[in-house]
Amino acid sequence: MSDDHDDSPIAARVRELEAILEEKGLLDAAELDRALEAFAHKATPANGFRVVARAWVDDDFKAALLENANEALPSVGLSMGGGLQVQRLYVVENTPQVHNVIVCTLCSCYPIALLGPSPTWYKSPAYRSKVVSHPREVLEQFGFTLPAETEIRVWDANAETRYMVLPRRPAGTEQLSEDELAAKVTRNGLIGTAPV
Amino acid sequence: MSERYRAGDRVRTSTVDPDHHTRLPGYARGRVGVVVGDDGVHPLADLRARGVVRPQPVYLVRFTARELFGQGDHSVTLSLWEDYLSDE
């Protein structure tokens, strides 16, 4: 994978620490692998797609999601507690007037539980520095042109909270089932760099 | 924990560029924004990075692009610990 960090100093430090903890009998490597695999297996953008589709068909769920996403997620069998700590999630809704875009300018904070591992470009200095100052141009680079009158709100996940965008339901999808709607959603749509 | 700010309050971020870890990005230093919500109570990241756990209120603060970058018609919302903020 192009976006792993096997060669970075932090990866080397983690490996050394892991080795010491194993040597002292404080860590079972197989147990660690099982925990990581379980998290990685559950953390996929399909979770986010499912949340969006439910919000599109269920107004009560959508209202609850926008009000307090952490409390709303369990009703679709999800949570933000799959990692080391429970993270607060804000779901921000796109409307005809407002479009939301997510970034972490300081590092690469990202709602992994709902979106899976982040795309490489999300972690790139180019995206992180430019989307806060020139979001409209960055969206253009993704092939996504917003009407000039649409207000853009950038959310910098610079601290403890994570964000997910609730895209607008595409026109002409009234007849689709929830599963079919979920299949319309893309990972970039949940970050705000695509319409859906 | 009592919160110093409420939604609607105007605040100015710290101008300090510390030697240590911080979660106040450089582009938002010394800028005026509006509190748009509370973001819970979390250990101040600057201290936690040095092993000291001191929880304090965190606020969602929205800045205009014009204030941050001198141009643009969008906004940027950040989560900022109370220590980063002063009354404006």
TrEMBL record, chain A:
InterPro entries: CN_Hdrase_a/SCN_Hdrase_g_sf, CN_Hdrtase_a/SCN_Hdrlase_g, CN_Hdrtase_asu/SCN_Hdrlase_gsu. The keyword Metal-binding applies. Pfam families: NHase_alpha. Keywords: Metal-binding. Residues 10-194 form the Nitrile hydratase alpha/Thiocyanate hydrolase gamma domain. Belongs to the nitrile hydratase subunit alpha family. This is Nitrile hydratase subunit alpha. It comes from Lentzea indica.
